Amino acid sequence: MLRPIVVATVGAFFWKQDVHYVDPSGTFDYNDSGTSLSYSAGAEFNFGGAGAKWGAHFDYQVFMDVGDENNSGHQYDRSFVSLGVDYRFGR
Question: Could you tell me the residue range of the domain that residue 51 belongs to?
Fold first, then answer.
């Protein structure tokens, strides 16, 4: 039976973005960088019990307030979903 291990993270991350776009009023180039909050939640599964070498994980992560509304005019939360297979060495 697969028993999930619930995982969660909270932390800070550094971001950098380069914005370049052209519209009828002109060409715009902006470079932004900063530090923002990040958090995630997910689950891990071990195939074959606690000592298993193989497993899988699912994670949903949010990166908050990426961008500088005063500089580039854009500030958004970004989301990331991952699904993967794990192999643990040394068990």
Answer: 5-87
pLDDT tens digit at each of 91 positions of the chain: 677 889 999 999 998 888 787 888 888 888 888 899 999 999 998 887 767 789 999 999 999 988 777 766 677 888 999 999 999 888 6
Separation CA 72–CA 37 (nearest Å): 19
Structural domains in the chain (count): 1
Give the tokens for residue 15. Answer: 């971001």
Q: What is the pTM of this model?
A: 0.69
Q: What is the DSSP track for 39-91?
A: EEEEEEEETTSTT-SEEEEEEEEEEEEES-TTTTS--EEEEEEEEEEEE-TT-
